[in-house]
C-alpha cells in the first residue's frame, strides 16, 4: 500500500514500465496508475482467505518433460524466417549495439 | 441449382455428394462478406483468391473420384492470432502488422486436411485481451444483430462472422471466456475444449496455462464436428494430452435422461434479471428432458476474477516479451537495443496490452511475487478443488455465460474493471482447465440473445455436448 491508500503508486508504474521495456510518458504513467489502482483494489477480495496449507497450481495438469526421438526433422526455412525480420545480415538478425561503444 | 445448406455438416455432405460445388459455396459466402462486412468488420483479411483456389481443388478431387475430408467445401473463418503460412497474422496489433508466419498452426493444417476452406482472418481484441473486440488496432467489430453494440470478445470477429452468415463455422481462442462470451452475445454456439485437448502450436500465446482453441458454429452438432477435427495429440505442443480425438457428434442427440446437472446456489451476482430468468428456464427444460437437477455450491467462484487477472497478465508479460523488434514485426530504430525495445513496444502495443503487461510484471516483481502471483496460484487451486468436489455429485453444471447481453460500443472501453467483470462466469473454467460451451437460449434485455453455459469436468466433452444438445433441442423456448 502506498501512502495515498492506492494499491500502486505512480513510481511503481514507472518502474514496472521500465522493467517491461515500455516507454511511457508522465501523462500515461498517471493514467495507468489510476486504472491499475482500480483493478488492483479489487484484488483485496482474496486477502482474507487462509491459503497457508494450499499448494500453488501453475497448470491444469502436472507438467512432465516431453521428449521426442533424436532424429532429424524439417525445420523452418531460414530465408523465410529472416525475410520477416526488421533487419537481417549474413543470415543473422541484425540489431543496434547492445552496449555503448565506450563500454 | 441446389440451395446451399446453412450448416457445416450440411455443406460437407452436399459438396461430397456433388449436389453443390465447393466453389459455389465459397463464392456465396464471399459475396455475403463483400456485401456486409464493411459495416460489421468481422475480418482483418479476406483470403478470397486462396479460398477460391482451394474450392476448385476440392471440386477437382470430387470430379476425379478422389476421397475428400469430413469438412469438404466448408468455409471457415480463423481468428487472426492463429498462424497461417504466408498469410498475414496480426493479432490485431500494430506490432505484428504485415507479419507472414513461416508455418501453419496445427489446427489450421488439420482443418485444411479435412477439406475446410479458410475465407479469412478475423478481428480480435489485441492479443486476445478484451471482452468487446474494441481493443483492435484495426478498428472495432460490430455485433451483426445490432451494429451499435459490441460482439463480445476477444474472438468477436469469429463470433460475428458466424452470426452474420459469412461462414458456417469459425475458430477462436479462449483464455478467460474469449470464445464463450462473444458466442453468447452474438447468439451462436461457442466451445472451449479441455486444456490440452486441442494443440496450441501456432496460436500466438497470451496466457499459456489458460489458452485453448475452439469453434464457433450455428448448431451444437457443427461445434462438436469441428471439435473432433481439431482435437487429438500433437507432438508440437508439449501440453497436448497424449490421446486421440474423441467422438462427440453422437453425444449431441443422446439426450440428458439420467444425467445429474448442477445448479450453483452461491453463484456470484451481477447478472441481469432476464439472464437469471433464462437460467431458470434452462433448468426447467433439462428437468423436463429427464435430467436430475442437483443443487451444488462453488464457494471460491467469486475469487476467480482476482486469480485470473493476476495469473493471465503475469503469463502475458512473459509471453509478450518476444515482441522486441528483433525477429518479426515492427521495429522503431534507436541507438541501442534497450532503447529500441522500449520505443518499439511503446509504439506497437495498444493501451490494454500495456496495462496487462505492466500488471503482470508488477505481480511477478521482487517483493510482490508472493503477495500477488503466488497467492493467485493458490486461489486457482481452491477453485479447481471446488469443481472437483462438485463433480463427485453432478455430471455437468449450467450457469449463464455472460452476466449481460451485448452492451453498447464505447460503454466500457476505458473502464478496465467494468470490462473484466464481463468474464466472471467464464474464467473459472479456464483456471481449472475444464471444457465449457455456450449455447443460445432465448433472449433477454432488448430482445438480444442470452447464452447458457454448460461446464463439465476435464475430458468431459461428451457430457457437455449432451447437455448442450438438449438445451438447443429445447429451443430456448420463452
Give your account of this protein's structure:
The complex is a heterodimer of chains A (103) and B (478). Chain A has helices at residues 10-19, 26-42, 78-83, and strands spanning 88-89, 92-93. Chain A has 103 residues and is mainly α. By secondary structure, chain B is an alpha/beta fold. Chain B has one domain (1-478): Alpha-Beta Complex (Amidase signature (AS) enzymes), CATH 3.90.1300.10. Chain B has an eleven-stranded mixed beta sheet, with helices on both faces. The interface between A and B is large, with 50 and 69 residues.
How much of the sequence of chain A is in beta strands? Answer: under 5%
Task: List the total number of helices of chain B.
Answer: 15
Q: What level of helicity do the residues of chain A show?
A: 25-40%
Q: How many E-type strands of chain B?
A: 11
Q: Mean pLDDT of chain B, as a whole number?
A: 97
CATH superfamily of chain B: Amidase signature (AS) domain
List key phrases describing it.
heterodimer; A: 103 residues; mainly alpha; two-stranded antiparallel ribbon; 4% strand; B: 478 residues; alpha/beta; Amidase signature (AS) enzymes; 38% helix
How would you briefly describe this protein structure?
The complex is a heterodimer of chains A (103) and B (478). By secondary structure, chain A is mainly α.
Protein topology:
The complex is a heterodimer of chains A (103) and B (478).
Chain A: H1 10-19, H2 26-42, H3 78-83, E1 88-89, E2 92-93
Helix pairs in contact in A: 1-2
Chain B: H1 8-17, H2 22-40, E1 43-46, H3 48-63, E2 75-79, H4 106-113, E3 117-122, H5 156-163, E4 169-174, H6 180-186, E5 189-192, E6 212-217, H7 220-230, E7 260-264, H8 273-288, E8 292-296, H9 304-319, H10 337-348, H11 351-364, H12 370-390, E9 396-400, H13 416-420, H14 427-432, E10 436-443, E11 449-455, H15 461-474
Parallel strand pairs in B: 2-3, 2-4, 7-8, 7-9
Antiparallel strand pairs in B: 1-3, 4-6, 5-6, 5-10, 9-11, 10-11
Helix pairs in contact in B: 2-3, 9-11, 9-12
Amino acid at each position: 500500500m502506498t501512502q495515498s491508500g492506492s494499491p500502486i503508486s505512480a513510481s511503481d508504474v514507472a518502474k514496472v514500465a521500465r522493467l517491461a521495456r515500455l516507454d511511457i510518458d508522465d501523462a500515461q504513467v498517471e493514467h495507468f496508475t489510476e486504472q491499475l489502482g482500480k483493478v488492483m483494489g479489487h484484488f483485496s477480495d482474496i486477502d482474507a482467505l487462509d491459503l497457508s496449507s494450499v499448494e500453488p497450481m501453475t497448470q491444469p495438469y502436472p507438467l512432465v518433460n516431453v521428449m521426442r526421438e533424436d532424429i532429424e526433422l524439417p525445420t523452418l526455412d531460414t530465408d523465410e524466417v529472416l525475410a520477416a525480420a526488421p533487419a537481417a545480415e549474413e543470415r543473422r538478425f541484425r540489431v543496434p549495439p547492445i552496449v555503448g561503444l565506450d563500454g | 441449382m441446389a440451395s446451399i445448406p446453412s450448416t457445416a455438416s450440411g455443406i460437407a455432405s452436399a459438396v461430397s455428394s456433388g449436389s453443390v460445388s465447393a466453389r459455389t459455396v465459397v463464392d456465396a459466402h464471399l459475396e455475403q462478406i463483400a456485401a456486409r462486412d464493411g459495416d460489421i468488420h468481422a475480418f482483418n483479411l479476406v483470403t478470397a483468391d486462396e479460398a477460391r483456389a482451394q474450392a476448385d481443388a476440392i471440386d477437382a478431387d470430387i470430379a476425379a473420384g478422389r476421397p475428400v475430408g469430413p469438412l469438404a467445401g466448408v468455409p471457415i473463418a480463423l481468428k487472426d492470432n492463429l498462424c497461417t503460412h504466408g498469410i498475414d497474422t496480426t493479432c490485431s496489433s500494430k506490432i505484428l502488422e504485415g507479419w507472414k508466419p513461416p508455418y501453419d498452426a496445427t489446427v489450421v493444417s488439420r482443418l485444411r486436411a479435412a477439406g475446410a476452406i479458410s475465407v479469412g482472418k478475423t478481428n480480435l481484441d489485441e492479443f486476445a485481451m478484451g471482452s468487446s473486440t474494441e481493443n483492435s488496432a484495426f478498428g472495432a467489430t460490430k455485433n451483426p444483430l445490432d451494429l451499435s453494440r459490441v460482439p463480445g470478445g476477444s474472438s468477436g470477429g469469429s463470433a460475428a462472422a458466424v452470426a452474420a452468415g459469412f461462414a458456417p463455422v469459425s475458430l477462436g481462442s479462449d483464455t478467460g471466456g474469449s470464445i464463450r462470451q462473444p458466442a453468447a452475445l452474438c447468439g451462436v454456439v461457442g466451445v472451449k475444449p479441455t486444456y490440452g485437448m486441442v494443440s496450441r502450436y501456432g496460436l500466438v500465446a497470451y496466457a499459456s496455462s489458460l489458452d485453448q482453441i475452439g469453434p464457433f458454429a450455428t448448431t451444437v452438432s457443427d461445434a462438436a464436428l469441428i471439435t473432433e477435427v481439431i482435437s487429438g495429440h500433437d507432438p508440437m505442443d508439449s501440453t497436448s494430452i497424449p490421446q486421440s480425438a474423441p467422438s462427440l457428434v453422437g453425444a449431441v442427440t443422446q439426450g440428458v435422461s439420467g444425467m445429474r446437472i448442477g445448479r450453483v446456489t452461491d453463484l456470484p451476482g451481477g447478472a441481469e434479471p432476464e439472464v437469471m430468468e433464462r437460467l431458470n428456464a434452462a433448468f426447467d427444460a433439462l428437468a423436463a428432458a429427464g435430467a436430475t437437477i442437483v443443487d451444488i455450491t462453488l464457494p471460491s467462484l467469486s475469487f476467480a476474477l482476482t486469480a485470473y487477472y493476476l495469473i493471465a497478465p503475469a503469463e502475458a508479460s512473459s509471453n509478450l516479451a518476444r515482441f522486441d523488434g528483433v525477429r518479426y514485426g515492427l521495429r522503431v530504430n534507436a541507438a541501442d537495443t534497450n532503447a529500441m525495445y522500449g520505443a518499439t513496444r511503446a509504439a506497437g502495443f495498444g493501451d490494454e496490452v500495456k496495462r496487462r503487461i505492466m500488471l503482470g510484471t508488477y505481480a511477478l516483481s521482487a517483493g510482490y511475487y508472493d503477495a500477488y502471483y503466488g497467492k493467485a496460484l493458490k486461489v486457482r487451486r481452491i477453485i479447481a478443488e471446488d469443481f472437483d468436489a462438485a463433480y463427485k455429485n453432478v455430471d455437468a453444471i449450467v450457469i449463464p455465460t455472460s452476466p449481460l447481453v451485448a452492451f453498447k460500443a464505447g460503454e466500457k472501453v476505458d473502464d478496465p474493471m467494468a470490462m473484466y467483470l464481463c468474464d466472471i462466469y467464464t474464467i473459472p473454467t479456464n483456471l481449472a482447465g475444464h471444457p465449457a460451451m455456450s449455447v443460445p437460449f432465448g433472449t433477454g434485455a432488448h430482445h438480444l440473445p442470452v447464452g447458457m453455459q454448460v461446464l463439465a469436468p476435464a475430458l468431459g466433452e461428451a457430457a457437455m455436448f449432451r447437455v448442450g444438445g438438449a438445451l438447443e433441442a429445447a429451443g430456448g423456448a420463452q
